[in-house]
Amino acid sequence: MVNPDGVFLGNHRTGVLGQDLNRNFNLCDLEYFPEVQIIDAYINAILKKQKVAFLFDLHGHSAKKNIFAFG
After folding, report:
1. Cα 54 from chain centroid?
2. What is the pLDDT of residues 19-70, one digit of tens each?
3. What's CA 40's distance to the chain center, in Å?
4. Is the pTM of the predicted complex or chain greater than 0.70?
C-alpha cells in the first residue's frame, strides 16, 4: 500500500496532506509527495536490473463498487 497515512485519515486518493497522488505523479516533490518519489525511485532501480513489461495501478474507487476497469 502506497498511501497508508492518507487511508488512515479517510483519504482514498489523497495523501496525508490532502493532495491527489494520482494527479501529481509527475511532480516528484519529496516534501509534498514522498510516496510518489519513492515509487518512482523503486521503479527506476528495477529498470536498471531488468525489463518491466507492465505496471498495475490497483486501487479502490469511491463510486464504483465490486470489480471495475479503466483503460
Report:
1. 15
2. 777 776 676 677 777 777 888 888 899 999 998 888 776 666 666 666 666 6
3. 10
4. no
